[in-house]
Specification:
- With about 190 residues, the protein is an all-alpha fold.
- The chain has one domain.
- About 70% of the residues lie in helices and about 0% in strands.
- The chain contains nine helices and no strands.
- The longest helix has 24 residues.
């Protein structure tokens, strides 16, 4: 039995968490993020897009009036178990794997705090700064791109706030189209 199977054996939230996670992966792998929005198509860039979309789903679950803690934790555990498997497939050995996963988790928590602050503020500069620091790692991108990504994050946060908790609890989440920034200078 594999690590993911053992981790989620007999967990009733396994299927909804997997469905949510699959939707997050599909959205974060949308080519437009890498072509039009200038996110680096690297392991780091892909992690940052995954982290951004996972944050949006977890933020919605956290704000739900129903008890969504177990589903949120199962989603989080699944995401990091999958990251562990992916790192191993990339050739990262067992030595230090726990340290690497712990570092990824810490960086994810840092992103959550930064994105939460940005979304909770009416100041778009705070959200753009969080996006610049985390998604672009302060690599120069145009103000237009940062603005489009900030609009996208706010739009998706608003959209998720409108989605029914019961649907999320069944693993159903809907993301909108990524921003198209054709012609935007990097």
């Amino acid at each position: 039995m594999g690590i993911i199977s053992r981790l989620f054996h007999r967990n009733p939230w396994n299927k909804p968490a997997r469905l949510l996670y699959t939707s997050v992966i599909e959205q974060s792998r949308h080519p437009v993020f890498y072509t039009d929005c200038c996110v680096d198509d690297t392991v780091e860039g892909r992690f940052d897009l995954l982290a951004l979309h996972a944050f949006l789903v977890l933020r919605r679950l956290k704000k739900a009036p129903d008890n969504t803690n177990v589903l949120s934790q199962t989603f989080f555990d699944l995401m990091f178990a999958d990251l562990d498997v992916n790192l191993r497939e990339l050739g990262v050995g067992d030595m230090g794997m726990g340290r690497r996963i712990r570092k990824l988790a810490e960086s994810f928590y840092g992103r959550i705090a930064a994105y939460d602050s940005g979304l909770d503020s009416d100041d778009d500069e705070l959200l753009k700064s969080a996006i610049d620091r985390n998604l672009y790692m302060n690599t120069p991108v145009s103000e237009k791109i940062l603005g489009l990504m900030a609009e996208y994050v706010r739009r998706e946060d608003d959209s998720l706030a409108q989605q029914q908790v019961s649907a999320l609890m069944e693993g159903q989440v809907t993301f909108g189209a990524p921003p198209h920034a054709q012609g935007a200078e990097q």
